[in-house]
Amino acid sequence: MLILLSIVFALTGCLPKTAGQEPPLPVVNIKAFLPDETPDDATIYIVGNYCGWQDGWQTGNAATSTVKTDEENKYAEFELEISHFPLEYKYTIGPDWAYVEVKDDGSDLDGNRRIDSAPEGVIEDTVQKWKNIPETQEPTEPPSEEPTIVKIKANLPDCTPDDATIYVIGSYCNWNFNNAATSDVKTDDERKKYAEFELDFEDAEYPLEYKYTYGASWDYEELDENGRGLDGNRRIDVKPDKDIQDVVLNWKGKDKIDYTDLQEEITVTFVVNVPEGTEDDEGKIYMRGSFNDWSEGTPLVKTQEGTYTGNVEVQSYTTLRFKFLRKDNWDNEEIVGNNRIAILSEDSTITCFVEKWKN
Fold it and tell me: What is the mean pLDDT of residues 100-106?
């Protein structure tokens, strides 16, 4: 056997791979030089096809770097294990496309950065400018750090397997299924299925963004009334003063349920807190969403308490998608990542905090 291995090595220059042994993934080392405007305490993201693009922000799979300094030049360093080439990517200075890199004149890049095959040395990039830079904008009532219990009841569709484990996966557990809260499938007196959760965390961890799955994988995530993905996260901006009641409409991999007979018009009241110093539109901000085809904004009026409030009429058992704008145009929308979403079965009040505005 030793003689045979010696012959193989002599002919090929390598030994045969042991059964079950996988070759190591190529490692791509990248050094990105940053513009002088980059804050010293910023977090730089490299987001691309290796991490599912924007999904990498939510899952934590997008690589990050602190801002470093070398001979007065600011830079970021990344080490990526890449399973497939070409590698396409861009840099952002926050977990949102509002903070993506742009050309020196402020226009968008002409496509994505691209590495076609495993490089031999360190890739050196230069970021010319950022589209926006995150600013610390305190809400009108800064959150405290008191521990709190958030109780959530999620009403489940009939197609939920009786023996399933329901996960509430979100920012509180870094989108990691191993650390996510779970619940058995329970049944009430009317034979309706539900799950219950108690989340213990601090006010400083708000906003809480989350979704439901009926297993420890995104292969089992919740879907909307049309059997499509939610394209956004559920969100709790502030410590609730009562238990949260959620509705899960459908599951990936299960037959879609028709909610037409249950759908009716309901009223949703919004109470919106904004950053201090917000320049509004003569005492109003606006709300656009799926309820008005994302067209002309619905005004929310400023109250004596400094919040903005208003009502919208929506359909129950449908996915409400929406965003806030300080003036009725997209140049003044909130920076919140994907759309806000809510799924409701009855008249409700939703309290929101806008963290920051575009421009």
Answer: 90
